[in-house]
Structure formats: structure tokens, C-alpha cells
Design goal:
Blueprint: E1 16-25, H1 27-42, E2 49-55, E3 58-61, H2 74-79, E4 83-86, E5 93-96, E6 100-106, H3 109-112, H4 116-133, E7 147-149, E8 152-162, E9 165-173, H5 197-201, H6 207-222, E10 225-228, H7 233-236
Parallel strand pairs: 1-2, 1-10, 3-4
Antiparallel strand pairs: 2-6, 3-5, 6-9, 7-8, 8-9
Helix pairs in contact: 4-6
Amino acid sequence: MAEGDVRTMTAVDQRTIRAYDLGLTNFEDVHRLQQRLHEQRREGRGADVLLLTEHRPVITLGRSHPVPSLRVDEAVVRNYGIAIVPTERGGNITYHGPGQLVAYGIVDLRAWNISVVDYVSGLERTVIGVLGDWGIRGERREGMRGVFVEGRKVASVGIYARRWITMHGVALNVDPDMGHWSLINPCGMPDMEVTSLAAEVGKAVRMAEVKESFLLHFGRVFDCRVEVAEVRRRAALGGA
């Protein structure tokens, strides 16, 4: 990120993270933003950052993505207006779209004195805390990443770490178009059921309330101070 793209991006103490709400975005724009922030953090500049967003419809591929994870031909997916984007994150195939809260952390794990495994586990526990605020019992499953409600996947986790600096993060289904999951085998598993917070509570859920809950639980889980900062959106996303 160029100087001045996001306000007050100066070094802060190691247990503080700056949260920026980017609103509705294209995945590629936020991916480039993450890469710039990741490079800054590796060079010892900038701060730990948490980016909150909802993406326009997109299917992203992790490093372990096999071709059979798509249930239909790629041309069919693109006819829906859905991009397919390979990434450097761990995990398999997933869908992002409006109504899904995505949180990307650019965090120096060494400064926080936690491992990659601890960080991923913390993201899952953050989501479990959010679900609990709506009376839903979320759980982790042995040998799998993400959060589940009675076996149905409600959140996906996939990160990338280089020199202990993270990228990517967690995606929580709040109230998205669930039909788009019919295009993929979530996590590369044909029998995987997918759900959303709204489906589990049986009523509409306000995204703003979910974001507030997420930031609260993130701070508790990682024992850090979350500072919500103002973002100059067009500059940060390259004019998007």
C-alpha cells in the first residue's frame, strides 16, 4: 500500500491490530492489497492489519486444489459471472460472495508469540464465539479446518504465511446466496454440506452486527486491542 492509502498505518505495539472495513470488493483488488501489506510487514514497516470485506462472487483455489473440486465446467462458472482465481493460501476450493464476511489478517506471528497452528485455531475460535452470540453452537472437526454446525460447514479457514507474516484468513457465511455452492465441492469433498448463520437462526442477520461481534471475539481470543481505523477505500484498492 502506498503511503497515505490507509490512514495512520504506523508502527504500533505488538498486541494491537488495526481493523479496516472495506465494504463490497473484488477479490483481486483485496488480494493485491494484502500482498502490498504483507511485503510492508516483512520489511518491518506498517502495522498488523485486519481487513474485513464482502466479495463480489468469486471462486478461489488453494494450493491443494484438484480439478474435480469443480462440479461443472469452468465455462459454466464463468457464465454465472463468477471468476475463478488461484491463490497461494492453504486449503482447497471455496466460494466468496455478498453476504459472507471475510476477514484477512496480515499479522507478524513472531511478535505475537504464536504459531501458525495457534493462529488458525484462534480464527476458528473467533467464529465459534460469533456463532455463540446468536445462540448457535459451532465446533471444529478433527482433521479438518473451518467451523461446523452439526456437521454443516459455516466458515472456511485458509492462510498463507511467509517469514511468519500471514495473509488470507477466514470466511463466515452470514446470509449469502447458498446456491452458488452447488458449483463446487466445498473443501474438495462432494458430500460436504454448507450452511449460513441466517439459515441456522431462521431469520435475517445484520452484517454490521456480525462484524462487531467478530472484532470483539478476535480481540478476546488473541488477547489484543482491535482499533477500528478509517480507510480511504479508492486509494487502498487502487481506485476500485
